[in-house]
Specification:
Elements (H helix, E strand, L loop, with lengths): L11 H45 L4 E3 L1 H10 L3 E5 L3 H6 L6 E2 L3 H7 L8 E5 L4 H12 L5 E4 L2 H7 L4 E3 L2 E3 L7 H4 L9
Parallel strand pairs: 1-5, 2-3, 2-4, 4-5
Antiparallel strand pairs: 6-7
């Protein structure tokens, strides 16, 4: 029991309420520190991932998600390839994208295209799509670009993703490790 004899004017209820407020404030600061730490960890992981993609595929050209949005809005003469696996594509994809999980699928999708036509590739974070972009360039395609940050960055920016012709709010997270780059609200 808390004694109020040393604190004239304070009741036990007042002291308990004061302690509750202190506890609430302390827990709030702890939660804020965790959120800030998680944001910093995510930012660092993004920086490491984008750096790794650029380092592993130095010849691949990249466009931002803003540039992709402008192309989707203003142009019709391009091919958009989703280089993820079928189960990822089925959950959601960028509207108009063809599934091309490997270079053979990509070449099939591009069989009626000229080698200088614009080809845009994406995957979850940009690694697999950069690999496909690199392979297409080695096969003579001269205008292949990777979407930096790919579908995870696109979705994290609240841009539309589709399953069939329907806008959805889910994105396949690939796995626990890479899924850290995708806002949890998009996880199926």
């Amino acid at each position: 029991m808390i004694s109020t004899t040393n604190y004239p004017g304070f009741t036990q209820l007042t002291i308990l309420n004061f302690l509750r407020v202190i506890l609430f404030i302390s827990l709030s600061f702890l939660l804020l520190a965790q959120v800030t730490l998680a944001d910093t960890e995510s930012e660092n992981l993004w920086e490491e991932t984008l750096s790794m993609v650029r380092e592993d595929f130095p010849r691949v050209q990249h466009i931002s998600t803003d540039e992709l949005a402008a192309i989707l809005e203003e142009h019709t003469d391009f091919t958009l390839l989703d280089t993820r696996e079928p189960e990822e594509y089925e959950v959601s994809h960028i509207q108009g994208a063809f599934l091309a999980e490997g270079v053979r699928d990509a070449l099939k999708a591009l069989q009626d295209k000229r080698r200088e036509d614009l080809v845009i590739v994406y995957c979850s974070v940009g690694y697999r799509s950069s690999n496909i972009a690199n392979k297409l360039a080695r096969r003579g395609f001269t205008n292949v670009v990777n979407v930096e940050g790919s579908l995870f960055k696109w979705a994290n920016e609240n841009r539309p993703v589709f399953s069939g012709d329907k806008v959805v709010d889910k994105v396949h997270p690939y796995d626990e490790y890479w899924g850290r780059l995708l806002d949890r609200k998009y996880w199926p």
